[in-house]
Amino acid sequence: MALRIKLFFLNLRDLIVSAGPLLILAVGLLVAAYWWLDPQPPHTVRLATGPEGSAYAGFGARYARALARDGIRVELVATEGSLDNLTLLRTGQVDVAFVRGGTSSLSRPRPMPAATASAAEADAPDPDAGLVSLGALFYDPLWIFYREHSIVAAAGGPAPRAARPGRKPAAPPGTPPPEPAFLPQLAGLRVSVDQDGSGVPQLMARLLQANGLDASALTLSHLPPTQATQALLADDIDVAVLTSAPQSAVVRELLRAPDIRPLSLAQADAYARRFAFMRAVTLPRGVADLAEDIPPHDVTLLAASTSLLAREQTHPALRQLFAQAAQSIHSRAGWLNEAREFPNTRTSELPVSAEGDRAINGKPPFWQRYLPFWASNVIERMWLVIGGLIVLILPLSRVVPPLYTFRVRRRVFRWYARLRDIEARAETGKASREALLRELDDLDRVANGIAVPLAHAGEVYALRNNIHATRKRLLAAASGPISPPA
């Protein structure tokens, strides 16, 4: 048993020494690649959401729960809205953010005169450089809620203007005014257009300008969605304008409130043609509550697609996790979209990152279904390095078996030098035969204790046979130097 243990450790030592340089090279290259590629993401990521009670805030909480399962803590950053989110993303204060389509164009200054525009545009850096999209997530409609008794509109016309050729005659006295369908019908009313950071004031200014109206035609205030809702219910304002997905609590509350109606824009398609980032969408009758028939008729809204944007410096593994979470959070049918319509890469205004495109349009690698996140992420980020190492190591590994064989045989062959020395001294007569025989006996005991694998046992026996042959020649010689073996 002791011999077997000794033999095992000797063979293990030879194997380690033989393959050690190759293993050190492989491990060194893997460590260097791991340090260079940095496959493991940070454990904390900052996500810009929106005001309290908004759909953005609700979705942010869902993303936080989704990424927590993989050990990532999502720090939710409350903001005034989409424009504020984009600003924080551009300045690197957050890593990921919900940004409504068109926000980038709304945040830029108005066009310059043609004479100076080309030179200025050539020198100005792109503020969105370094930002990528992880996919469009949902429609973010422009909600214009009004109190019915606050609207006094001219019958049959889009705006209370002077008589025009071909205009319909005014309705008879006592006829209730029709439901408003045009933005100019809001002139003179108390209108809250959300906070500056939401981008709604800038959007409303563009829409009013397209109608030939100035913002001064309205009595404007800038209340956040929750306060605007309470003010509208309390009759402190006449109109509340906000952007939010239908999932938000304020939208659901206003749809159910008595005397509060969403404005259905008759010219929604025309707005969508003039503003490329907008689309005309329909809120179906009864979608909020079939039993109560809320809303009581189809409502035509203007909407933009909200995308999940990230910085290029955000770790690719984090972008991958967010894109995968978007698949489960936003793929169901909603009030304004069909199932599997979102997330998508068709309506993203910025370039879609490889992680977002693969999560939305491709199939995840098979190992992600069986391995934990950290392991699958290492393979995902380092597969090229691992493949290159295999290609490099396979040819080099052919050196290991001969080197191992050399080390094992060296245990035996090293004693032939001593045997040859004994034979040389016997031939020249420089030592007595008794002394030489004692040396041969010592060498035979050493050879008997050499531990080698069974595959190399024949070499040990060959050494012992040669020792025995030398002993026989010494014993057979009567006197004088012995003759070398034939």
From TrEMBL:
KW Transcription (keyword) present: no
SUPFAM superfamilies documented for this protein: Periplasmic binding protein-like II
Regions that span the bilayer: 12-37, 382-404
Low complexity compositional bias, start-end: 113-122
Alphabetized InterPro entries for the sequence: TRAP_TAXI
Location of region: Disordered: 103-123, 157-181
Bias kind Pro residues: ranges: 170-181
Source organism superkingdom: Bacteria
Keyword set, alphabetical order: Membrane, Transmembrane, Transmembrane helix
PANTHER family, sorted: SLL1037 PROTEIN
Protein name: C4-dicarboxylate ABC transporter substrate-binding protein
Species whose genome carries this gene: Comamonas serinivorans
